[in-house]
Design a protein that fits this description.
alpha/beta, 44% helix, Aldehyde Dehydrogenase, Chain A, domain 1, 246 residues, 8 helices, four-stranded parallel beta sheet
């Protein structure tokens, strides 16, 4: 495996990933490489309409695939296949990530990406082990507390450790039977798009993972305020977290 690469020759998935397809979009936020400060591309900003399209895609994928209703072990196998492909594509994924982040490409291959694959496998194994509970009743009754998926989950990740952060949010949400609309940081967005592409290649239903690129005021606000986002998972600043709570 060769870890040296020309940063000017790395193809980037610049666009939103919705319904299993990369949707090209004009970049609006200039991006500079941390390694030399050179501008190399621009990050698109998803509008409220694009966020709504991603949420509708997630809802449609849940319905078409019955992801939350299939045998849990089927979800486990699908997520494990995704983890395997992430490992197999480690070199390409590392180069995409290293280009925009401060993570050295060698550490990404042996550290972040390997750990992310194991994270996904770990959460995948919970799919058929976290279930409902029987509760005490009289002998003529049966009481049960049922665990059900939320439906469509919104996720927002910060600029640091983008691959690992995406894995921490996508793994448990998918294992529990949900679909996800993910907004990565506009500073390090493209590895999340590539991970979502790998998920479809691994056999996960298209539309189960949607990635919308953009900033907090426009894209983040549209995502966290969407009426059909049932839960939001956020990692970032206290200020941004307070805005999401509002």
């Amino acid at each position: 495996m060769s870890l040296s690469f020309d940063p000017d020759k790395i193809p980037l998935p610049v666009g939103h990933f919705v319904g299993g397809e990369l949707i090209s979009a004009e970049g609006r936020i200039e991006m500079r490489r941390p390694s030399d400060g050179k501008p190399y591309t621009a990050c698109p900003v998803a509008s409220a309409d694009m966020v709504d399209r991603a949420v509708e895609s997630a809802k449609a994928a849940l319905k078409a695939s019955n992801w939350g209703g299939v045998r849990p072990r089927e979800r486990t196998r699908a997520l494990q296949a995704w983890a395997d492909l992430i490992e197999a594509e480690a070199e390409t994924l590392a180069k995409v990530e290293a280009l925009s982040s401060t993570r050295p490409v060698g550490q990404l291959v042996t550290g972040d990406i390997a750990v992310t694959a194991e994270q996904i496998r770990f959460f995948a194994e919970f799919a058929d082990k976290e279930g409902s509970d029987l509760v005490p009743t009289d002998d003529a009754s049966l009481g049960m507390i049922m665990s059900e998926p939320y439906g469509v989950v919104g996720a927002i990740t910060p600029w640091n450790f983008p691959i690992s952060m995406a894995g921490w949010k996508l793994g448990p949400a998918l294992a529990a039977g949900n679909a996800v609309v993910l907004k990565p940081s506009e500073m390090t967005p493209f590895s999340a798009v590539y991970m979502a592409q790998l998920a479809v290649r691994a056999g996960l239903p298209a539309g189960l993972i949607n990635v919308v690129l953009g900033d907090g005021p426009t894209t983040g606000t549209a995502l966290t305020g969407h009426p059909e986002i049932a839960k939001v998972s956020f990692t970032g600043s206290t200020r941004a977290g307070a805005a999401i709570m509002e």
